[in-house]
TrEMBL record:
Protein name: Gamma carbonic anhydrase 2, mitochondrial
SUPFAM superfamilies listed in its UniProt record: Trimeric LpxA-like enzymes
Record-linked CDD domains: LbH_gamma_CA_like
Classification of source organism: Bacteria, Pseudomonadati, Pseudomonadota, Alphaproteobacteria, Hyphomicrobiales
InterPro entries: Hexapep (IPR001451), LbH_gamma_CA-like (IPR047324), Transf_Hexapept/Carb_Anhydrase (IPR050484), Trimer_LpxA-like_sf (IPR011004)
C-alpha cells in the first residue's frame, strides 16, 4: 500500500516521486518530480500547504508540518536530513537541513544555506543566502561562496539516483 492519504477534501499531489512504504504523506502536500520521501518520514499537510520542490529529498524519520498561516515550502534540490523537523517555514533552492535540526514557523532559509546537524532555527528567523547556521538557538557562523552550492546540488542528485533505484528494485520479503 502506498502511504499517501487524503484528509477530508485534501489529497496529496505526487508526480514522479519515490515515497518509501513506511513514510506518510497526508492532505495538502504537493511534491514535484524527482523528489523523494524516505522511510519513516511524515509530511502532514493538515493545517496548511506543504510544497516539496523538484529534486528535493526528505530523509528517514524527518517531519514536515505546518500551522495555519505558516505553509511549509521546500525549494528545488533541497535536502532535509534524517530526523530533522521542518515546520511552517521556507527553504530556498539548494538548502541542506542537517540531521536532527529543527526549523520553526516563519523562518526563511536563504538559497544554498546549510543548517547544521542539531541546530534550532527559531520562529521568524531570516537566514541570508549561503549561510552556515549552527547551535541552539541557531546563529549564522559562516558565509559560503556561491560556488559551494554545487556540493548541495550534487547531494540532491545522488538522492534522485538512489530514489530511482529504490523505486525499481525495492521488494518486500
Amino acid at each position: 500500500m502506498v502511504p499517501i492519504y487524503q484528509l477530508g477534501a485534501d489529497s496529496p499531489t505526487i508526480n514522479s516521486v519515490f515515497v518509501a512504504p513506511s513514510a506518510s504523506v497526508i492532505g495538502k502536500v504537493t511534491a514535484a518530480a524527482n523528489s523523494s520521501i524516505w522511510f519513516g518520514a511524515v509530511l502532514r499537510g493538515d493545517a496548511d500547504q506543504i510544497t516539496i520542490g523538484e529534486g528535493s529529498n526528505v530523509q528517514d524519520n524527518a517531519v514536515v508540518h505546518c500551522d495555519p498561516g505558516f505553509p511549509a515550502i521546500i525549494g528545488d534540490h533541497c535536502t532535509v536530513g534524517h530526523s530533522a523537523i521542518v515546520h511552517g517555514c521556507t527553504l530556498a533552492r539548494g538548502v541542506l537541513v542537517g540531521m536532527g535540526a529543527i526549523v520553526m514557523n516563519g523562518a526563511e532559509i536563504g538559497e544554498g544555506s546549510i543548517i547544521g546537524a542539531g541546530a534550532i532555527v527559531t520562529e521568524g528567523t531570516k537566514v541570508p543566502p549561503f549561510s552556515v547556521v549552527l547551535g541552539q538557538p541557531g546563529r549564522v557562523k559562516k558565509t559560503l561562496e556561491p560556488s559551494s552550492m554545487a556540493d548541495r546540488l550534487d547531494q540532491a542528485e545522488r538522492y534522485i539516483e538512489r530514489a530511482t533505484l529504490f523505486a525499481s528494485d525495492l521488494t518486500s520479503e
